[in-house]
Amino acid sequence: MKLGRISLLLAVLAMAAVPFASAQGKKSIVVTKIRATDAVAKRMADQGVSLSIDQVLQGLDSQVYDRLVNSRRFDVYDRSDSDALLEEAGATGDTFIFNKVDYVLTIRVDSFNDRQETRHFASLGKTMMQRAVEVSAVAKVTEGATGKAVGTANINVTVRDSESRSASTTSRVGEASDDLVNQATRELAEKLVLRATDFIYPARILAKRDQIVTINRNDQAGVKVGQVWEVLAQGEPLTDPDTGETITEEVYVGKVQIVRVTPQSSQAKILEDLGIDRGAVVRLLSDVDGTEEE
Asked: Exposure winner among 22, 132, 136, 258, fewest CB in 10 A?
């Protein structure tokens, strides 16, 4: 009888483990409250344009969460409880560890400018003004159980009015809740999530057919038609003799350009092929505006 009960218990445990095992490839992540550095917050308050930075922070909060969920690569935890625990730990001088999640994403806005750029046209006898919004943030990904940093990235975004305005136009810079600030926020969120995701799940080639490859990044991952990505084959494990750290060798094998983006994946045409194959890692080389990634 006792043996029968043990067998039954083992069978139940085995059945319960099935759904858990099937989800092992999907990591969990929590995003802490997105804040501006103290220096940025003070400067915005002194300039009387606090509404713009508040709009950026609130927008980033929802945009980053949305993009992480729709990337379909993570179980994204609600962060309301974690914020309270972080504040409590900070008040007592302790270090709070997120034992229940694999990774923690922390974002700090470290620079923000909302300004008018003036252009003088002497031949026309006119002065035109163009509004520019510039914002940068530092993203840090750490392991939930240990607090060890996985990677950090500094992302900068600048957007401008599509049309210049006359010098006679009167407006209070930064106090309007408008499309320009929203545009900067959306673009920054896309790039932050793309970089954070790459630290944990490097983008890879799923398939190669003739001169087209399929990449495991969808339309919520910051991928855009026209972007150029470099392709890197994974080589042998390498050990740094100074630190003892083991890294994987990456060998350049080509370049591809995005031609199609879907809710499931992206497709790119091959620009240079020195041995591109399934499983190779791809990294953004140049964005659609022609800027090179750091």
From this structure: 22
pTM of the full structure: 0.71
Overall size of the chain counted in residues:
294
Per-position b or e across 42-77, b if 16+ CB within 10 A of its CB: ebbeeeebebbbebbbebbbebbbebbeebebbebb
Contact yes or no for 257/228 (Cβ under 8 A): yes
**CATH of 205-286 given 2.40.10.10, 3.30.365.10, 2.40.10.410, 2.130.10.10:** 2.40.10.410
Say if residue 117's pLDDT is above 70: yes
Category of 197 on φ-ψ map: left (φ > 0), alpha (ψ -120 to 50) or beta:
alpha
What pLDDT was estimated at residue 148?
87
